Amino acid sequence: QVQLVESGGGLVQAGGSLRLSCAASGTFFRINAMAWYRQAPGNQRELVAITTNGEPAYADSVKGRFTISRDNAKNTVYLQMNSLKSDDTAVYYCNAQARVTLSSRTSDYWGQGTQVTVSS
Question: What pLDDT does 1 receive?
Fold first, then answer.
């Protein structure tokens, strides 16, 4: 199984920056992709950014402001968020697409979420 622990959320003024971290632990064969999602009150959970073995991909709303990066040696993914806006206020969730064993299928694993609040 894969456990994900997020950190780095908080309250920031508009235009400010925050850096989220998500560390994966447990027993698994391989993590194929790691991503950040967010969910604002009354909205569906949406993909913010994802990193696999290729180029990272971003939601249009965060392109040029957010950067996702991954440290494979530490099984950790980061989300650097700059030029934050009030619309970025949400609970941010870390996601990992992982295989527990060589023969198992890829499954989704989620962190508990971390609150990001941007004040205008």
Answer: 87
Q: What is the dihedral of CA 18, 20, 50, 77, to 10 degrees?
A: 140
- Please report where in the chains the tokens 């968020």 appear, as a residue: 81
pLDDT tens digits, 66-103: 999 999 999 999 999 999 999 999 999 999 999 999 89
Give whole-number Cα distances, 89 to 25, 51, 83, 101, in Å. 27, 22, 12, 36
Exposed/middle/buried for residue 77 (C-beta within 10 Å: 0-12, 13-18, 19+): buried
Residue 81: exposure state from Cβ atoms within 10 A (0-12, 13-18, ≥19): buried
In b/e form, how buried is each residue of 27-61, taking b as 16+ CB within 10 angstroms?
Answer: ebeebebbbbbbeeeeeeeeebbbbeeeeeebeee
